[in-house]
Design goal:
Elements lengths: L2 H13 L2 E9 L1 H16 L5 H21 L15 E10 L2 E11 L3 H13 L2 H13 L12 H8 L5 E6 L5 E9 L1
Antiparallel strand pairs: 1-2, 2-3, 3-5, 4-5
Helix pairs in contact: 2-3, 3-6, 5-6
Length: 184
């Protein structure tokens, strides 16, 4: 990237009030360092403690999504303690609300399954999301899930607006870029 492109990126980040941005390979250590940086940034702003907690919770859930499910690993899939997977995250502020966006490649055939999980969350009330969350806590984890299957529910529960998502096919690849956005 030339300096001109970098300046355009910086200008766009300023226009969009981007507080934090990372693109590259994610690991638990990288997520921890990003979390520390975000926590320091949040401590210097006027956000309420509830907003900070929710923002941090959503940030961690989305970062874990990249670490566990990105279809572009740099490490072997059986190296669960030291996974490195490609993705991007950014946190911004718009109209006195924070937003968190994550993006990572997924296998194209995973898109219908994700869509089936995400689409219902967009129309559920907060009480319905909380009820589903409690039900999931009592159930066994999902097959193929590296957690309890609570990630999207946590994001939807903590968001102040319905979550947004998109899928964009990557050219010359068997993967699709999955984008998830939560506004708090």
């Amino acid at each position: 990237m030339g300096l001109t492109a970098f300046h355009r990126f910086q200008d766009l980040a300023r226009e969009e009030n981007v507080v934090f941005y990372y693109s590259g390979y994610f690991s638990q250590a990288v997520v921890s360092a990003m979390g520390d940086a975000l926590r320091q940034r949040l401590n210097s702003c006027d956000a309420t403690n509830v907003t900070r907690r929710k923002l941090f919770s959503v940030f961690v859930e989305m970062a874990q999504n990249v670490v566990h499910y990105s279809a572009d690993p740099l490490t072997a899939s059986d190296d669960a303690d030291h996974e490195l997977r490609r993705g991007a995250m950014w946190v911004g502020e718009c109209d006195k609300h924070f937003y968190v966006v994550c993006a990572n490649p997924i296998a194209r055939e995973a898109q219908p399954k994700l869509l089936a999980k995400l689409e219902p969350l967009r129309s559920m009330t907060l009480d319905e999301i909380k009820q589903r969350y409690k039900e999931k806590l009592r159930c066994e984890g999902e097959a193929g899930s590296k957690g309890a299957g609570l990630g999207f529910l946590t994001v939807a529960r903590d968001a102040s607006e319905p979550i947004e998502f998109d899928f964009v096919d990557e050219p010359d690849s068997a993967t699709t870029l999955f984008y998830l956005k939560a506004t708090l």
